[in-house]
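Chain entry —
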Amino acid sequence: MARKPRVFGTSGFYHVILRGNNQQNLFVDNEDRFFFINRIKKYSKELEIVVHCYCLMSNHVHILVGNAGENLSLLVQKIANSYVYYFNHKYDRCGHLFQGRFKSEPILDDVYFKTVYRYILQNSEKAGLGRIDQYKWNSYWALKRNKNNSFVDTNYIYGIFKSQQQLFQFIFQKETRQCMEFENKLFFSDIKAIKLIKKIFNISSPYELERLNIDDQVKKCGIMRKHGLSINQISRLTGISKLIIRKS
């Protein structure tokens, strides 16, 4: 079946989601997260695309951009290719890291712009990772800093509201509307799961298990499942195929 053509709006604003392949984690440590954010900064400036908001989760990323148009795909391609090269080299792995084409939707008015903006910042709270103003890997910090020292544009969102107080009241209100909703239910903390995997197998990274032969992968997966890790989580954290995990 042919893929549907990507929809480009007339406003230049887009909500973008990049997802990990098989729901696997995109980030192992803070160095990875800093690198990814720097790629957003580098290529958005290079392509003259405005970054309004972002949030890095464990296995997916949300970005709200403006002035994108048909350069949107090029932006995501540059970010993804650069990060995959970095990630595979660092963790001595190969193959896909991101799941197929990225998801995107055009934002055609200020009402939906506000909704998406809030939705992105609230992702960490919905996943139990921390409050908007306490989570380190979203762009909330840009709202509190000197605008001239940030690659994240806050002029547009401030221009929609009459005051900073009104803006913050809006951001912290519970958002119930779904914006390209991405399923991300965690039954066992990924941070604890990574620590557990490293400890029981005496390895430095869960991705080391992906390089074992299939029989050994099956045995290791069986051990992880006995410790309470789900099939999706094992695949996400190690890169091991769900088909192999189901054999354990």
In short: The beta strands are 13-19, 50-56, 60-66, 103-107. The mean pLDDT is 86.
